[in-house]
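$ run holo --ligand "adenosine-5'-triphosphate" --emit tokens
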Amino acid sequence: MIHTRGLTRTFTLKKKQTVEAVRGIDLDVEAGQLVAFLGPNGAGKSTTLRMLTTLLPPTSGTATVAGRDVTRDPDGVRARIGYVGQKNSAGETFRVGDELVTQGRCYGLTTAEARRRAGEMLELLDLTPLAARKPGTLSGGQRRRLDIALGLIHRPGLLFLDEPSTGLDPKSRADIWTHILRLRETHGTTLFLTTHYLEEADSMAERVIIIDDGRIIADGTAEQLKNDLAGDRILLTAHTAQDAGRAAALLGGDADGLTVRLRAASAATALPEHLRTLEAAGVKIAAAETIRPTLDDVFLTLTGRSLSDDDVPA
Ligand SMILES: Nc1ncnc2c1ncn2[C@@H]1O[C@H](COP(=O)(O)OP(=O)(O)OP(=O)(O)O)[C@@H](O)[C@H]1O
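-- output --
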């Protein structure tokens, strides 16, 4: 569905200064995948998305999206993809149902087809009771569902979503995800989305791609990335600071007050072993905890920085 080779975008600023926003990305996304594209502010996510959706020409490299080349056949790409940007796509003039029909007409559907398709989309996104309302009267979550319906009106096989759940309350975020997952189950739509919510990417996406400074630095399932790049952590609480220091020395960890921090490929297997070692050495431990890594730990391991340090846009 998406194939890029050496995809690059450089911006030229005043005085011939340049910004290398995307530095030679090779990407292959097969049909039906749900891909979360993550990275800190300024990493190159939007620039990549804009090139893949033909909104921005690449400086060099190639990209084939939904079977069409983004440079040679941008119209072909646009006819086959949907794009839900960060801003609301509906105007304020028409009612929700009419917005969808108008969008369908823009994609070349006949009025009858556009009406039929609008009805299907209202149903799919649970918007049927709101069809006669103006977009301005909808809640944030309802508007987001309308944006997705508008992006799907021409039955694209591939949908790009830029921060689909940002700015929504937790209930609306969960609701948007229900609809995104339903879309995939019922229509097999390929989904490529950016998000700042790492826990959403972790639990919902089957593939996570991390971009930093214009380069892809990790690509795999969330589980693979966490196992391969971060590993588990073990947190021990010792009886005394002296016990903590001895435990850290024996097991190769860091002590801080009563707390001892350790890393392990599998904490569940390593912990009993560690406790036996400490008991044999007469080191007293009051509590033990195992911690699975997060995607943020993966990013921290790769870059030494936390993705959560970024401000999530409101
Ligand atoms: N039109 C432009 N002119 C000059 N520089 C730009 C332009 N658009 C983006 N950039 C720069 O390219 C780099 C990548 O920006 P991009 O918007 O792709 O990042 P991002 O990962 O989407 O960030 P965010 O999470 O903040 O949206 C940044 O350094 C940005 O300042």
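-- notes --
The chain has a mean pLDDT of 89.
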